[in-house]
């Protein structure tokens, strides 16, 4: 207990007060007093004082009550350090006794006095004496009858008369509010909002402004922006003969503040008061540097300001308000950038379920791609396409997705899978397409025969039933709740442009297709940090060509297929270069885990046999021959490139011919070629020699000179450890933290979802490492790799391109390790730009 801080402080313009001692509400009230607003006499109890109240050591009540005069009427409200941490509800009308009731009846009329007394007895009984709330609800009684019933009930239940001494009443109110703060549920609630375990509670004791009386009396709430859009607008309600926030709760009797043709308004009823409120609002905004909601009371025509709180706001309004305050010179741009949490942008970029809607959640999974969408259940890609052809929205529900499902994913509004984690196929593709996606909903089963999905509790949903996938939270809901649309308004663009001025790490996008690249470009990505070329074959009839290549048994067969692939790739790359318009485009050579490209069931194998004009048995045999126990550690990435040189040579040629084509059209281009899944320097050396040879050949053939960079992905622990060797042949290192996490933990990316939630629940891992970069383990490999890479080549460009790349934790870590840029899915680019700026400020 700090002896310099008094237990109780009378709020005056100069009293020493701080939010860390008295809480946010008390400090805000002092600011209102300083701005000359008519705030009734208010005392602030410090955190320490309230802590002692909880232990029964109350301040001297006589001294405490002295500033309020004889027979005062008071309110007590909580004042936690951060208003978002909550606190016990306000208690009004403390000081009401039989005697005060009599005298007040003369002043404001008996009905009004009785209403005040009844309200106090009820809240005292329930919140202070902790009596049964039902016992104090008298739906059939009004006025004096209800009051007498309440007083009698109190006497009966508490076995004593309702306290008739304001000192006793106030002491008990303070004690009970202090204790409520200590309760388990209150503590859990505020800890969920980020409050520390020992967060303090202050209390403010305020002289009551009555809100009932002979002249115009009442209470209301006013704010000056729209909570949904953040645009300037007077919003609020006023209710005659009322107290507190009644005007918001009892909308029937309450009136609007401004006219707008909606009937009676405070503006007409009391024009002077309304004008005064506008002026206070303007002052509060410019001096408190925030949009405030002001609680006011009229007592026989006299205005009192009781309280002001930060306006509750949607994500969109949050951005709008921050930008408007900075534009008006009230806060600096840096502060506007700091005020918006990056997740708020995510809510703006995608449709969301209206938070005001009731939610009928049927199952939960991993939130893999944000946004929400509604549609009818379909269980196959072809049903999804048929549904799209009919113009009907659908949700594709699969055990897990494979490349065959891509067409279905394009046709669907959302995807739901039972298996897989945050880097599973469905998740990665979903994020790329901006398609809401929930994966790993392992409590769901699909009964294909009956065409139903079965949720926990046995709830069944048939094909054609409507469900909603919320990829932001991981919930799957029955039916079609109301949605809020995505909005990318000017304020959004302005805020991000400011963020770019402050950040000191680059932001690129992972973009596989021209559509992705366009999205990335719209979000001002500084280039493409990862183009997964094998994903270019997930679409349309291209998958078949890819499979033919995988199935080719002789070099001649393979060459024939590669000749068909080459023009497709060349056109893809030319498109990417043109869209990115001179910004770097980092193309990763094929990294195809074979199982992702081969049909795993009989039906798929039959289709493929038909397509390739091969007997089904041959297809099945070949699939078996190619199958691996652990495909994620198998014939992937550079290993295919080493074993079957023609494949990477074809890709290199496609890239360089596209470069030559674009250069010939007079466009700027910065091509980069990246080799995946490196574990040995010799791999790089071999591939580099082949790629260089192709570059020379194309330059000669086309007569066009061009430059390019060649680098590697660091996805195996060995690559990180041997980075000094790798950079002899590589101009850049890009950490693929999906595979690097998989291999550092020895966890399968595709299967870890089965037990990850158990692991996280039991605290084995603090978080899913595929979701949140493990700074301690995987992070150390990043640090080692970057340092060793620089030791071998001081100007080596270092970046991260795993799914972690857009997260705040990873960006923060990469900044401290001096990385040049992060690369993330296109829809995360705005969040990454904002996070990077906040970390730099
Ligand atoms: C990675 O492993 O982090 C990566 C970016 O590559 P992919 O996800 O395609 O394996
Ligand atoms: Mg990888």
Automatic annotation (TrEMBL):
Residues noted as binding substrate in the record, renumbered to the chain: 532, 588, 715, 736-739
Residues of the PEP-utilising enzyme mobile domain: 393-474
Entry coiled-coil feature ranges: none
Domain PEP-utilising enzyme C-terminal: 491-839
Molecular function terms, GO-annotated: kinase activity; metal ion binding; pyruvate, phosphate dikinase activity
Cofactor(s), names only, from the UniProt record: Mg(2+)
Listed EC numbers: 2.7.9.1
Binding-site residues for Mg(2+), renumbered to this chain: 715, 739
Enzyme class: transferase
Any one Pfam family match given in the protein's UniProt record, by short name: PEP-utilizers
Keyword Magnesium: yes
Active-site residues, as the UniProt record annotates them: 425 (tele-phosphohistidine intermediate), 801 (proton donor)
Superkingdom classification of source: Bacteria
UniProt keywords, alphabetically: Kinase, Magnesium, Metal-binding, Pyruvate, Transferase
Function: Catalyzes the reversible phosphorylation of pyruvate and phosphate.
Similarity comment: family membership: Belongs to the PEP-utilizing enzyme family.
Name of this chain's protein: Pyruvate, phosphate dikinase
């Amino acid at each position: 207990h700090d002896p310099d801080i008094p237990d109780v402080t009378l709020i005056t313009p100069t009293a020493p007060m701080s939010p860390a001692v008295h809480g946010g509400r008390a400090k805000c009230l002092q600011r209102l007093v300083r701005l000359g607003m008519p705030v009734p006499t208010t005392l602030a109890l410090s955190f320490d004082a309230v802590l002692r109240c909880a232990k029964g050591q109350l301040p001297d009540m006589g001294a405490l009550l002295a500033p309020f005069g004889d027979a005062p009427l008071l309110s007590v409200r909580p004042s936690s350090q951060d208003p978002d941490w909550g606190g016990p509800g306000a208690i009004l009308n403390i000081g009401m006794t039989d005697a005060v009731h009599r005298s007040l009846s003369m002043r404001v009329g008996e009905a009004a006095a009785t209403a005040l007394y009844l309200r106090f007895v009820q809240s005292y009984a329930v919140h202070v004496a902790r009596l049964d709330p039902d016992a104090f609800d008298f739906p059939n009684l009004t006025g004096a009858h209800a009051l007498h019933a309440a007083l009698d009930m109190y006497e009966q239940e508490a076995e004593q008369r309702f306290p008739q001494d304001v000192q006793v009443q106030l002491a008990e109110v303070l004690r009970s509010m202090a204790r409520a703060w200590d309760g388990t549920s209150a503590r859990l609630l505020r800890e969920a909002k980020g409050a520390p375990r020992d967060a303090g509670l202050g209390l403010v004791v305020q002289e009551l402004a009555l809100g009932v009386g002979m002249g115009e009396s009442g209470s209301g709430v006013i704010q000056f922006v729209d909570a949904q859009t953040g645009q300037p607008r007077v919003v609020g309600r006023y209710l005659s003969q009322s107290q507190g926030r009644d005007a918001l709760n009892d909308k029937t009797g309450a009136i609007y503040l401004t006219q707008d043709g909606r009937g009676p308004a405070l503006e007409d009823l009391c024009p002077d008061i309304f004008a005064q409120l506008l002026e206070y609002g303007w002052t509060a905004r410019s001096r408190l540097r925030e949009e405030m909601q002001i609680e006011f009371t009229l007592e026989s025509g006299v205005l009192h300001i009781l309280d002001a709180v930060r306006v509750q706001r949607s994500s969109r309004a949050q951005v709008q308000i921050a930008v408007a305050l900075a534009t008006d010179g009230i806060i600096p741009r840096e502060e506007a950038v700091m005020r918006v949490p990056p997740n708020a942008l995510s809510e703006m970029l995608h449709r969301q379920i209206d938070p005001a809607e009731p939610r009928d959640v049927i199952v939960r999974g991993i939130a893999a791609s944000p946004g929400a969408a509604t549609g009818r259940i379909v269980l196959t890609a072809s049903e999804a396409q048929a549904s799209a052809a009919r113009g009907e929205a659908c949700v594709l529900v699969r055990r897990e997705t494979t490349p065959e499902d891509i067409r279905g994913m394009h046709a669907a509004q959302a995807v739901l899978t039972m298996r897989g984690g945050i880097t599973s196929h469905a998740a990665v593709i979903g994020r790329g397409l901006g398609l809401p996606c929930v994966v790993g909903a392992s409590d769901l089963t699909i009964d294909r025969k009956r065409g139903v999905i079965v949720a926990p509790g046995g709830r069944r949903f048939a094909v054609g039933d409507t469900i909603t996938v919320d990829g932001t939270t991981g919930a799957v809901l029955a039916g079609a709740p109301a949605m809020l649309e995505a909005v990318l308004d000017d304020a959004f663009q302005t805020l991000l442009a400011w963020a770019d001025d402050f950040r000191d790490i680059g932001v690129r996008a992972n973009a596989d297709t021209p559509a992705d690249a366009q999205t990335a470009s719209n979000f001002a990505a500084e280039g493409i940090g990862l183009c997964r070329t094998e994903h270019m074959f997930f679409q349309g009839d291209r998958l078949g060509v890819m499979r033919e290549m995988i199935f080719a048994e002789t070099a001649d067969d393979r060459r024939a297929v590669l000749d068909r692939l080459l023009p497709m790739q060349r056109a893809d790359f030319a498109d990417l270069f043109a869209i990115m318009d001179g910004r770097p485009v980092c193309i990763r050579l094929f990294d195809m885990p074979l199982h992702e490209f081969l049909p795993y069931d009989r039906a798929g194998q039959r289709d493929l046999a038909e397509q390739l004009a091969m007997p089904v048995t041959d297809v099945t045999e070949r699939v078996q021959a190619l199958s691996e126990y652990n495909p994620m550690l198998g014939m992937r990435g550079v290993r295919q490139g080493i074993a079957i040189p023609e494949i990477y040579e074809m890709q290199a040629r496609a890239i360089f011919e596209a470069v030559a084509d674009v250069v010939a059209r007079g466009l700027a281009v910065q091509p980069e070629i990246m080799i995946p899944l490196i574990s040995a320097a010799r791999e790089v050396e071999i591939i580099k020699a082949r790629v260089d040879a192709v570059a020379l050949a194309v330059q000669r053939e086309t007569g066009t000179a061009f430059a390019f960079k060649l680098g590697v992905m660091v996805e195996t622990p060995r690559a990180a450890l041997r980075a000094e060797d790798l950079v002899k042949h590589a101009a850049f290192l890009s950490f693929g933290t999906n595979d690097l996490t998989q291999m550092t933990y020895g966890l399968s990316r595709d299967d870890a979802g089965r037990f990850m939630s158990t692991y996280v629940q039991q605290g084995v891992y603090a978080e899913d490492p595929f979701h949140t970069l493990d700074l301690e383990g995987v992070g150390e490999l990043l640090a080692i790799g970057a340092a060793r890479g620089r030791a071998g080549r001081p100007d080596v460009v270092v970046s991260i391109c795993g799914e972690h790349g857009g997260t705040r934790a990873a960006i923060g870590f990469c900044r401290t390790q001096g990385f040049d840029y992060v690369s993330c899915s296109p829809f995360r680019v705005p969040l990454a730009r904002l996070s990077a700026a906040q970390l730099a400020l």
